[in-house]
Amino acid sequence: MPAARKRLIPTEADVNPSPKKDGADGVRAQQAQATRRALVEAARELFTERGYHNVGIREFAAKANVTRGALYHHFGDKESLFLAVFDAVEREMMGEGAQRRRAKSSDDAWTQFKRGIQAYLDAVMRPEVQRITLIDGPAVLGWARWRKLEEGYGLGGITNVLEGAMKDGLIRQQPVEPLAHLLLGSVMEAALLIANSDKPRKRRAEVGEALDSLLSGLENVVVRK
Q1: In terms of CATH architecture, what is 16-78?
Q2: Distance, CA of 152 to CA of 157 (rounded, Å)
Q3: pLDDT tens-digit profile of 41-91?
Q4: What's the predicted TM-score (pTM) here?
């Protein structure tokens, strides 16, 4: 029989399951969740400081104050723990984006989207975002799986923005799906350029300006008409 395929994009329940039982079972479930959280927080710090290949299972367990057996029980292996950390960092950035969108603003959705792209590039300057999602992410998970994960986190939001902007007449009508993929690819390439640069601040300014020009070009087609 063929081996079962591993799901590419984790859900919140995969990486941070919530306890739902009562009584003794509920207490054990809460303890298990606390152990997982401690391991993810410890691994997040160690991965950021030293990188995936320079830290091991024993160190994660010691920092989280749990046994190696507990680590293997919750995550199975080092890559699974890394995936949980990767997901935590990505979801944190998604939460920051959602908070910005909820803030009161007189700007239209397209302008807010462009501002959000610049905010993401600012986040890429953070060491943990660089190391975990952009340097070790592709190397540990493989390029194809990493790209699929990034699509899962970002493609839907970009698609929704494009559909709304076209409906409101803010950008030219065109096929949404290919444009969404192209924009996501451009944003990720910009992030990789920052993460792998020996002058990240300079590169951040350069790619930020280039992306803003790219996005504004979609508007200018409408303005010229």
Answers
A1: Orthogonal Bundle (1.10)
A2: 9
A3: 999 999 999 999 999 999 999 999 999 999 999 999 999 999 999 999 999
A4: 0.84
